[in-house]
Specification:
This protein is α/β, with parallel strands linked by helices and about 425 residues long. About 20% of the residues lie in helices and about 30% in strands. The protein has helices spanning about 5-15, 60, 150-160, 200-210, 225-235, 255-260, 295-315, 365-370; strands spanning about 20-25, 35-40, 50, 55, 65-75, 90, 105, 110-115, 115-120, 130, 140-145, 165-170, 175-180, 185, 195, 215-220, 240-245, 265-270, 270-275, 280-285, 285-290, 325-330, 340-350, 350-355, 375-380, 390-395. It has four domains: about 5-15 and about 170-315, 3-Layer(aba) Sandwich (Molybdenum Cofactor Biosythetic Enzyme, Chain A), CATH 3.40.980.10; about 20-45 and about 135-170, Alpha-Beta Complex (Molybdopterin biosynthesis moea protein, domain 2), CATH 3.90.105.10; about 50-130, Molybdopterin biosynthesis moea protein, domain 3 (Molybdopterin biosynthesis moeA protein, domain 3); about 325-400, Beta-clip, CATH 2.40.340. The structure holds adenosine monophosphate (AMP) and magnesium ion. Magnesium ion binds near residues 180, 222 and 293.
């Protein structure tokens, strides 16, 4: 058995990022840049007003002038070419271009008007309230390095410099194959000893959430020929996830069939609970994950190894979930020789975090996974501890970090002095 770190290194080390494709800007949402992006335009592209107010010459304010003649009106989207002379002001709106000759905007709240005459009541510094051309972004600025995730702000930034298409890595196509003669789909009648296939469903969602394209290949019964046929089909994808059949049972055919089909084994067995019998290998550039059959073991294996691999395939530089230290709200049970990932729920506690486990931790108990938003890691050989002990917790999708730490409102909570 190898450690989590060794396993993760082996997985990430085997990843060859997928080739790039160019997609329309909106389709790049959630994906990663395949190359650094250099700005083709400046932002702002012209000097403009940051306020509704009056544009004047700053030097005249410095010299003590407080009265100006308003000679022109400049709404956003218009363009004035006539230079303003001494003692002249332009009424200007936020975002409207500054006319030649002036360099300072007095916000409207700091002015009064007597007939044609503008009176400045509070004089700003020269140059105030003006957004200079290219002060945010100059032509040629690097906006993002390669591997940056494009979220809403990034997509908006690209729109603001007129990027209509973006080079991103292709989405990995991920074959999902459940194994087990006992498995039936939801809705099918259950015979004696049969159970529902849930792994295909959890994997489908996990793949989608990690930016992959899930391809469901159904269920392989515990039969060598059927496993061969379906695994061969699965190997035509970028990533293969089989669940079940990788343990030491009489009918655990997955490893044997992987070998027969030319999958190069990188490891089998990680010192974790759940998830010990994980088998990982490669065939060409295809990553082949044989995750254990127990539903929680399958999901946890995905979180720990498959998800980072899918992100790495997409060229992402940030592969990991956030981790926080959190204090146990109940005594922590001892561990034995493996790192244990315990399903838990994170809680805001003061300025930090607490957690409670979500019930029985058996690796088949999917319900406690559904209730969890974190995985608390207990190192091997942990002697057990009282409530209050701190553990590292991996934040899962929809974690407490996404809920406000106080009931309801959007305002920040008061911080104790
Ligand atoms: P295995 O690793 O094949 O021995 O499976 C371990 C346990 O997980 C057994 O109880 C299986 O019935 C169960 N299991 C395997 N595959 C699935 C699946 N796709 N959905 C739900 N449970 C499964
Ligand atoms: Mg099985």
């Amino acid at each position: 058995m190898i450690s989590i770190h060794e396993a993760l290194d082996a997985v990430i080390g085997a990843v060859r990022p997928l080739p790039a494709e160019e997609v329309p800007l909106l389709e790049a949402l959630g994906r990663a840049t395949a190359a650094a992006i250099v700005s083709p335009e400046a932002v702002p592209s012209f000097d403009n007003s940051a306020m509704d107010g009056f544009a004047v010459r700053g030097a005249e304010l410095v010299a003590g002038r407080r009265e100006f003649r308003v000679v022109v009106d400049i709404p956003a989207g218009s363009w004035v070419t006539d230079e303003l002379g001494a003692g002249e002001a332009a009424r200007i709106m936020t975002g409207a271009p500054l006319p030649p000759g002036v360099d300072t905007v007095v916000q409207v709240e700091h002015t009064g008007q007597h007939g044609e005459t503008l009176v400045v009541m509070e004089s700003p510094e020269p140059g105030a309230n003006v957004r200079r051309a290219a002060e945010d972004i100059a032509v040629g600025d690097v906006l993002f390095p390669r591997g940056a995730r494009l979220g809403p702000a990034e997509i908006g930034l690209l729109a603001s410099v007129s990027c209509e298409r973006v080079a991103v890595a292709r989405r990995p196509r991920v074959a999902i194959l459940a194994t087990g003669s006992e498995l039936r789909l939801p809705g099918q009648p259950l015979g004696p000893g049969q159970i529902r296939n849930s792994n295909s469903f959890t994997a489908y969602g996990q793949v989608l959430a990690a930016g992959g394209e899930p391809v469901l290949l159904g269920i392989a019964r515990d039969d060598l020929d059927e496993t061969r046929r379906l695994l061969a089909e699965a190997l035509e994808h970028d990533v293969v996830i089989t669940s079940g059949g990788v343990s030491v049972g009489e009918y655990d055919f997955v490893k044997q069939v992987q070998d027969e089909l030319g999958v190069r084994r990188r490891f089998w067995g990680v010192a974790t609970k759940p998830g010990k019998p994980l088998a990982f290998g490669t065939r060409g550039d295809t990553l082949v994950f044989g995750v254990p059959g127990n539903p929680v073991a399958a999901m946890v294996s995905f979180e720990m190894y498959v998800r980072p691999a899918l992100l790495a395939l997409q060229g992402r530089s940030d592969l990991h979930r956030p981790y926080v230290f959190a204090a146990a709200e109940e005594p922590v049970r001892r561990s034995r020789d493996r790192t244990e990932a315990r399903r838990c729920r994170l809680l805001h506690r003061g300025r930090g975090w607490g957690f409670t486990t979500t019930g029985p931790q058996g690796s088949g108990i999917l319900r406690s996974m559904a209730m969890a938003d974190g995985l608390a890691f207990v190192p091997p050989g942990y002697p057990g501890a009282e409530a209050g002990a701190e553990l590292l917790v991996m934040m899962l999708e929809g974690s407490a970090a996404e809920r406000p730490p106080f009931p309801g409102g959007p305002a920040a909570p008061a911080v104790a002095p």
